[in-house]
Amino acid sequence: MLFKLPFGRPKKAADFFVLGGARLEMLQQEGRYSCYRNTRATLHKLARFTGRHALPVKDLNTALLEGFRDYLTDMLGNSHNTVVENFKVISQLLDEAHVIPNPCKGLKLTREATERCFLQEDELQRILALRLKAGSEIDLARDIFYVECRTGLRISDLLNLRWDGVSDGTLRLKMQKTRRRVTVPISAGVGAVLEKYRTLFSTPSTRVFPIVDRFETHNRSFESDRARVYATARINLQLKKLAKRAGIEKNVSTHTGRHTFATALIGKGASIYEVKELLGHHDVRVTQVYAHLLDSRKRELVECLDAGI
After folding, report:
1. What confidence tens digit (pLDDT) does each residue in 26-48 have?
2. Residues 6+ apart with CB under 8 A from 206
3. Per the confidence metrics, is the pTM higher than 0.85?
4. Is 255 part of the annotated catalytic residue set?
5. Contact 149, 255 (CB under 8 A)
6. 282 exposed, middle or buried (CB, 10 Å; 0-12, 13-18, 19+)?
7. Burial annotation 213-236 (CB, 10 A radius, 16+ → b, else e)
8. Residue 223 and residue 218: Cα distance in Å, rounded?
9. 31, 68, 185, 283: which has the highest count of C-beta atoms within 10 A?
10. Is there a catalytic annotation at residue 177?
11. CB-side exposure of 282: number of CA atoms within 13 Å?
């Protein structure tokens, strides 16, 4: 399957859009939907910007790329990090085409650190106290979010969790992102949530939270990955509704759950190495992004100085 433009398909093998089409086909075969989606979006944006049905690789010079960067930010309103991701796609394709020097490298675009949203315990409790219709989509989203906040699992792992991975007070799974096998203890609160769904979906091969099943049409890896993206978007929509109803003025999403878990542990005095193991990171440097402390913990530490502790 080649990348198809709204105004035709390029013919030349040295065409950038042909290279992009080959890349899309490979990503689809490998089942990497997130990369596929990002690559396809980048190609469509570049096609709209140039207004051309063919784009020889040699035409991708610094001037064209600088104009494309301005188009993404000024016309489309893309964030800096989105622009960086788009240029990462272009740069990889140019590297694969052995373009030397790679004009993307001269732009020196790097990702900016973004503020990571997390909830204080009282904010989480306000969400849990909301009266919701049992079995509704928003109720399911809240349950999934709570399990995230108490296990630190990524949404992709929770959505793929099956009942044969739940036993003896633990969750056992292979992480989608790192392919690392982890064992996560089940707290009393998480156990109560799981029991709520066990009576409905309890065969070993079924998912604990079957929201992905609504979007999955095939069992192939690519289709499953796409279904998880759709399901995550639905959950994020419901989480924003929950935050608004709870009076929380934060951009709450599924990422917030994992960050809330890590931040709460650090606030309780857990070491960065302990948090690393619970999050399933290979390298502690990855975990350090979660090392900001809660304001209350900062105050406790400072007050320890006055107390001579």
Report:
1. 998 888 888 999 999 999 999 99
2. 162, 163
3. no
4. yes
5. no
6. exposed
7. eebbeeeeebebbbbbeebbeebb
8. 6
9. 68
10. yes
11. 6
